[in-house]
């Protein structure tokens, strides 16, 4: 689909918003059904819950964790990362961060509330 005018772009944007709203309602309904009756198979896919596991090393065990990693022959600092939320709490300037970190910029296409 080629969009050539602002009017077309606005029309498509409005249609996408309506479709996404309808999709959310449909998914909410299907989720409620799955909650009551279990997974649903349709169209070669299965709708239901899947689990993912992650681990959070507690602060009071971090030193021990890093020692274990080193004993395994790995550099423990290469396994560490600091979340954007944690960095924001520090309120460091971008200039300060650039001295010690590599900035990673990701783009995502989405709508945002005005």
Explain what the structure shows.
The chain is mainly alpha-helical and 114 residues long. The chain contains 4 helices and 2 strands; from the N terminus they run αββααα. Strands 1-2 form a two-stranded antiparallel sheet. It starts with 5 loop residues before the first helix and ends in a 14-residue tail after the last helix. The model has no long low-confidence stretch (mean pLDDT 95).
Helices and strands, with pairings:
Blueprint: H1 6-37, E1 40-42, E2 45-47, H2 62-71, H3 84-90, H4 94-100
Antiparallel strand pairs: 1-2
Poorly predicted ranges (pLDDT <50, ≥5 residues)? Answer: none
- One letter per element, helices H and strands E, the order comes to HEEHHH
Question: Could you say which overall geometry the principal axes of the C-alpha atoms support?
Answer: flat
| Mean pLDDT over all positions | 95
Query: Compute the gyration radius: what is it?
Result: 23 Å
Number of beta strands: 2
Structural class: mainly alpha
Helicity, as a percent range: 40-55%
Structural features:
single chain, 114 residues, mainly alpha, two-stranded antiparallel ribbon, 4 helices, 49% helix, flat
Task: Describe, in short, the structure shown.
By secondary structure, the protein is mainly alpha-helical.
């Amino acid at each position: 689909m080629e969009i050539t005018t602002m009017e077309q772009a606005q029309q498509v944007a409005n249609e996408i918003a309506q479709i996404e709203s309808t999709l959310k309602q449909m998914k909410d309904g299907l989720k409620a059904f799955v909650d009551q009756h279990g997974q649903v198979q349709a169209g070669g896919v299965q709708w239901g819950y899947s689990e993912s596991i992650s681990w959070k090393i507690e602060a009071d065990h971090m030193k021990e964790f890093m020692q274990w990693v080193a004993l395994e022959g790995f550099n423990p600092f290469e396994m560490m990362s600091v979340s954007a939320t944690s960095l924001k709490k520090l309120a460091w300037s971008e200039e300060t961060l650039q001295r010690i970190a590599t900035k990673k910029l990701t783009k995502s296409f989405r709508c945002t509330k005005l």
